[in-house]
Automatic annotation (TrEMBL):
<keyword id="KW-1133">Transmembrane helix</keyword>
<protein>
    <recommendedName>
        <fullName>Phage tail lysozyme domain-containing protein</fullName>
    </recommendedName>
</protein>
<dbReference type="InterPro" id="IPR041219">
    <property type="entry name" value="Phage_lysozyme2"/>
</dbReference>
<feature type="domain" description="Phage tail lysozyme">
    <location>
        <begin position="291"/>
        <end position="425"/>
    </location>
</feature>
<feature type="transmembrane region" description="Helical">
    <location>
        <begin position="246"/>
        <end position="271"/>
    </location>
</feature>
<dbReference type="Pfam" id="PF18013">
    <property type="entry name" value="Phage_lysozyme2"/>
</dbReference>
<keyword id="KW-0812">Transmembrane</keyword>
<keyword id="KW-0472">Membrane</keyword>
Length: 572
């Protein structure tokens, strides 16, 4: 090695210096020192001038553009991830279809809509950054801050209102769905059969309670209407009576002398003739027989049963209220004896009359015969009323009510007298125009008999609920639900008074009658014809009466009519 090798020449020194300068310059650029120095030098030159403000806006815009570019790049990466995720999900789904295990853990779900939102948000953020940089430290910055606060408050208010509306809609939808589910559950429970008997009973009870509430409400309205009607007609009648009285009085003053001359002798003649007798006649019957027949007609007893009763009375006493058996002491038209005779005496004392009074004896007979049935019993009374053959009726009354000894029976004479009474009544229209029977039960259809069976097993809901009981009967028979008061049912469904039209299962009703006081006048009464000349109804207890007896009592007001409840013809 020579000494010259350790000595650097001029050319070598120049090349080394150039290389060092290049290396340092590259490092300076890479570390940002050059840019920073350039920026500092530029700021020193243009700072505080108009060019400085322009440069500031330029730099802010440049930053915003860079932010948008970076957001776009991030969006691109997100899109790639989304495509990869979709591919992975499709492969996993395909594996599931092939019966292989599906593992979707680690997959991500993205959508084009979310990607678009991300890009849009990045652009907005870039614009806002540029805007803030442009107006920083100027008067416009305060204005912008105020605007942003107002805008945020407005958005919060709108969002709150939208949330309230949305919640209201959701609550309404939930309420509708809940109601529908409850209804469906109720129907399901009611129709589930024997397994849900309790639910069925509860449903029927609630429906019956609802009907009673509605019926009570309509009853109140009907009561008010009827009360107003009664007041109206009472006023009209009073005015008419006053008018008639005035007219008669004025006319009477004019003819008074003529009346005194012509009619006074006739008056005394008539008064002297009828003062000790009654002018009652029923058909060809007169005297006590006519009085007894009329009493039974007013109670609704039909022609056959009146004849059977009076034929027995004639055999016992000749229909004389003062008849007395000299050996036994039996007394009156039915020859009462023992405790039954004592009952007659007590009733006479209550009425302040003598026990020989025919009206007292008839009231006592009716109590024993049909009301308390103390003379026999309810079952025997129903058997008697159900019988339509005159001979059988005569025998039943003699053996079950009179209960005379066989030696005193004289059945042939009793029947002969009953036939005489029957024929005498035939000349009168005193049996309420009902002389005949409706359809026989044995000719009824299955649906008609279903109503009869339901009527015989449905219990009374209480006194005053005759229409509610009829409604329950038809429900229990599977016919349907038909509500309303007795007068409502009569007006809506009862159209006939011809006994030939009367079918088993028809309702028979009146709009108004005086027999049960205000309730009868306002609401009437309704029963069901069950065939064989019998009507069943709720009078507190469930009672069965002959058609004639029912019509005789309840038909004294507006009259009784019959028809198919709800217009449903059960005979077809």
């Amino acid at each position: 090695m020579r000494a010259d090798d350790f000595v650097t020449g001029d050319s070598a020194r120049g090349a080394g210096q150039s290389s060092l300068v290049g290396t340092e310059s590259t490092n300076a650029v890479n570390t940002g020192l050059v840019g920073s120095a350039a920026a500092i030098a530029k700021n020193m030159v243009i700072g505080g001038t108009e060019l400085g403000d322009v440069d500031k806006m330029y730099q802010a815009g440049k930053s915003a553009v860079k932010g948008s570019v970076n957001a776009a790049r991030a969006g691109s990466d997100l899109a790639k991830d989304t495509v990869d995720t979709a591919k992975t999900t499709a492969k996993a789904f395909k594996a599931g279809l092939n019966g292989e295990n599906i593992d979707l853990s680690g997959t991500k779900s993205r959508s084009g809509k979310n990607l678009a939102k991300g890009a849009k948000k990045a652009a907005k953020d870039g614009f806002r950054a540029a805007k803030r940089a442009a107006i920083k430290d100027s008067e416009l910055e305060d204005v912008d801050n105020l605007y942003q606060e107002a805008k945020g408050l407005s958005k919060a208010t709108v969002s709150s209102a939208k949330g309230a509306v949305s919640n209201t809609r959701k609550s309404w939808k939930m309420l509708k769905r809940s109601t529908a589910r409850i209804k469906a559950l109720s129907r399901k429970r009611f129709t589930a059969g024997a397994g849900n008997k309790f639910n069925q009973q509860m449903y029927k009870y609630m429906r019956s309670a609802a009907y009673r509430s509605v019926s009570t409400s309509s009853g109140i309205v009907s009561t008010v209407k009827n009360a107003m009607s009664v007041i109206y007609w009472d006023i009209r009648l009073a005015l008419s009576s006053i008018s008639s009285a005035i007219g008669l009085f004025l006319g009477f003053l004019g003819i008074l002398p003529l009346l005194l001359v012509v009619f006074v002798p006739i008056f005394f003649l008539i008064f002297g003739t009828i003062s000790g007798t009654k002018a009652t006649t029923v058909g060809s019957l007169t005297g006590d027989e006519a009085t007894i027949a009329q009493y039974l007609i007013d109670k609704g007893v039909d022609r056959t049963h009146i004849a059977a009763i009076m034929g027995n009375m004639f055999q016992e006493s000749g229909c004389r209220p003062t008849a007395i058996n000299p050996s036994s002491g039996a007394y009156g038209i039915c020859q009462w004896l023992g405790g039954r005779k004592t009952g007659l005496e007590n009733l006479a004392k209550q009425k302040g009359k003598d026990m020989s009074d025919l009206s007292v004896q008839l009231d006592w007979f009716w109590d024993e015969f049909a009301e308390s049935c103390s003379g026999w019993n309810k079952a025997k009374y129903k058997v008697f009323c159900a019988q339509s053959d005159l001979k059988q009726c005569v025998y039943l009354f003699r053996s079950q009510f009179e209960r005379c000894g066989e030696s005193e029976a004289a059945d042939a004479n009793r029947l002969a007298q009953a036939q005489r009474i029957y024929d005498a009544l035939g000349t009168s229209n005193g049996t309420n125009g009902i002389d005949g029977n409706g359809q026989d039960l044995k000719k009824a259809t299955r649906r008609q008999k279903d109503v009869v069976n339901a009527a015989n097993t449905t219990t009374s809901p209480g006194q005053g609920w005759c229409a509610a009981w009829v409604t329950n009967v038809f429900q229990n028979a599977g016919i349907g639900y038909f509500g309303g008061n007795a007068c409502d049912m009569c007006r809506a469904y009862c159209t006939s008074t011809n006994v030939r039209d009367l079918k088993v299962g028809m309702i028979i009703a009146d709009v108004s009658h005086p027999g049960t006081g205000d309730a009868g006048r306002l609401y009437g009464h309704v029963g069901i014809y069950i065939g064989d000349n019998k009507v069943i109804s709720n009078e507190g207890p469930i009672t069965i009466k002959s058609l004639q007896e029912f019509v005789g009592f309840y038909g004294k007001g507006t009259g009784c009519k019959w028809g198919w409840l709800g217009g449903v013809d059960l005979s077809k």
